[in-house]
Structures are given as C-alpha cells and as structure tokens.
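Regression report. Comparing outputs from two consecutive submissions.

Submission 1:
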Amino acid sequence: MQTSNRLFDDFARVASGAMGVASGFKGEVEALVQRQFDRILARMDLVNREEFEAVKEMAAKARAEQEALNERLAALEKKAARPARKRAAKPKAAAPKDDTA
C-alpha cells in the first residue's frame, strides 16, 4: 500500500508542476498577444474614446448652429420677398397726358 500512496503523491507533484508550467505559459502567451495587438492598433492610428466624444460634441454643436442659421436665412428670405410682392401688386400711376401736341 505504501507504494501506491507514494506513486499517487508523485503523480500529484508532476501534475501540480505541469499546472504551474501551463499557467506560466498561459501568462507568456497572453502578454505576447497583448503586445502584438497593441502594435497593430498603434499602426492603425485610431483615436481614443475621449477624442471621439469631443469631436462628436463639436459635430452636434455645428449641426445645431447650421439648423439655426438655415431657419434664420429662411425667415430673412421670406421677409425680403414680402415687399417685392407688394410693389408688384400696386398699380402704376398713369403718366400725365401732354395736350400740347
């Protein structure tokens, strides 16, 4: 019986050592993949979240300003068109007749 316990103990130590090696290998592979991923992202010249949000806010503000300016322009065009219609609607006064001829 002593031999089988010792055999199991040896197997347990080998398995434990293998798990330690596998864990270390896993850490190395994860670090390698992370470094490679960082290199790829650096070459892509991507923006970070803060920069994206800032540009998104600027675009929303510019869109709102453009809509306000469009409304203002439409109102001014409407106002400018009104007097022209009034002038066209007024009848022209007849020219005085010259009876001297």
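Submission 2:
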Amino acid sequence: MSNQNPIFIPGPTNMPDELRAAMNVQTSDHRAPDFQEILLPMFDNLKKVFKTQTGRVITFPASGTGGWEAAITNTLSPGDKVLVARYGMFSHRWIDLCQRHNLDVQIIDCAWGSGAPADLFEQHLAADSEKKIKAVLVTHNETATGVKSDIAAVRQAMDAAQHPAMLYVDCVSSLASMDFRMDEWGVDLAVAGSQKGFMLTTGMAIVAASEKAVAATESATCPRCFFDFSDMLNANEKGGYPYTPPLQLIHGMHASLHRLFDEGLDAVFARHHRLAEGVRRAVSAWGMNLCAQQPALYSDTVSAIYVPAGFNSDELTNHAYNAYGVSFGVGLGNMSGQAFRIGHLGSLTDVMVLSGIATIEMAMKDLDYPIELGSGVAAAQDYYRQSATLNKQQAA
C-alpha cells in the first residue's frame, strides 16, 4: 500500500492515472503512414508550451542530460568559448558536460542560493571585444537550491553588451510548471524532459532550437550521431524518426499536453505558485530558511530547506521514507547533509501537498527537531483556505 503515497522529489514526478493509461499501448509500426498523426501534433503543441512561433522542437529518447548534450554538440565546436554561472548542482553538471566536450568554459562562480548573475554576464560579454564567446548557458530553475533565475534579465544583459552569443537555457524543472517565454526572452536553445512538469516517465529529452541555433549546426564540429539535429529534423518533417522512437512516451506526451491545455497554462502556473507558497509558509512556521536567498528567486517547483545546525538532512529524508513511505529530495553537492528538498510540481493538489508537509513534520518531530508539531501544516492550511476562497470569488 505504501506505493500509493505521493512523492515529493523534484522529479520524476507523480503520474496521473490517465497518463499512465495513455502510455499503456501495444507496440505499433513507427514507419506506418498514420504514425505522423500523433507525432506531428506533439511538436506543434510543445511549441505552445515553450511559447515559440519560430523555434523547432526536437525530441530524443533520453533524459534531460541527453538534451544538454544534443544542444552542445549540434551547435558548438571543440575549443569554442562558452560563458556559464555555477550556482547549484545542475549548472555545475552542465559545466562538466561542456568541459568533457573540450569547450573553453568561462565560469562565473556564485553562491549557492543565488541566481543567474545578469550583471556579471554583461560585464564578461562587454569585455569580450573579439566576440569569441559563442554561447551563454543559464539554468532557469536550479533544482538543487530551489532557485528560479530571471532569463529575461540575462537576455537584456546580452543585448546591452551588444554581443552575438547564443542563449542556452536549462528549463528541465520549470517547463510546463512555470511560465517560459522562448521567443520573448530571446532563447536560442531550451532543454527540458518528460519526467517533471509533463508528469511522464523519464525517457524523452525535449529541445527547442531557434532559427539561429539550427543554422549553427552547419558549422559545428562536435561529434554527434544519435543526437544529430539534422537527422532528427529531416525525419520529423516526413512524420517519422531516424531510428526507433519512444512510442509509449509519445502517446503519453500527447495526453499530457491535452491535460495541460485543458487546465490552461496560466492556471497550471498559478497552481504551482499556490502549492509552492503553502510550502514556504510551512517552512517559515518551522523557523527554518530556504536556500534561495530572496523571494524573487523562489522556485515554484521545488523548495530547498536548510535543517537546523547539528542535524543531518539525509537522516531526515531517510527516516521519512523508512517510517512513513514518503520520498523527499536529498541535499545535493554543497547542500548534502545540510538541506532537504520538497518537490511541489506536476500532478499535485493542495491536499496532496498538505500530506507531504505533515509527513516531513512528523519525521522532524521524531528526530527531535525544534519545531511544534502541526505548525507547518496549519500555516499551509491557512494559506490554502484563503487562496481557495479568493479563487471562488474571482471565478464568480
């Protein structure tokens, strides 16, 4: 029975039964002429989530990391300079991937809990008089620290520096949960995955590429085969894949997109903000601090929470799992042992989030944390009750 409990990790997320059922399909011929009837609408609908009119959506059978590799190898060459800020585990992993592909990575080290430093990007780009920096890499939502960065501000900084570099954005833990505006923000490559806001299993890397990024593939010399944009785009235009596609996930994505549009993207974003704010109210009631340094940086998909001095966050998440059968995110990298994470994205409601807050609260009390049992739940309940009343008034 314990597998009926929701999970509160920042991905993979809880899967709605209707999406699980949509993926429960028999194998079919992906080279049959009617395969394009489900494949091609998927690309059009994904463009609506990225909010792009001119971008091309490309999918690969992979996790988000595969999407990162595809973005890099298709548009850059060994020795190319890229500029990236490191302010969490996932921005660090992107740096590592670039270095393994022999790129010249210019790193801006920032405090964990801070966001993308638009001002420092502008300084570095302005100093690049020979325009050798080919791309600026930004993590929109740093999953390790619960930090959301201002992508529009980064683009404004790039424009202020009058620099031609492309803008690459990791939106793996934000897309389909928080607003993302590819065209408006001038994003050239955006990388996401199926296992977070889309509420599906891991296995589909999703990349949206601007016209400029697609053009860059003609001169890029990083080796690629499985992740080749050209092979995929040429096959997609004919309604197919260059190799065997993740058929079940394509059916699942078709259903996921319809679910998101039925709720309405603005309503999806508002729900995630409401769920996140309830968690933040609970954290405040516990007398604890978020890793995110200021409210403008608060993520609406995951909250990273420092435990009090003298406590180990890994012991807390292990106890919650062993005692109550509920998973929470562990601290990653610099946060290991110091913080735990509550994922509040995907298929979740106020009531489900309340169960997560109550569970971690019980686990903390079991381990003698200096909290009052029920304080976090009550704070979240007050907020959810108020927001529910407000929503009803606005609907009327």
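Expected: both submissions complete independently.
Actual: both completed, but the second showed a warning that disappeared on reload.
Relevant detail on submission 2: The mean pLDDT is 96.
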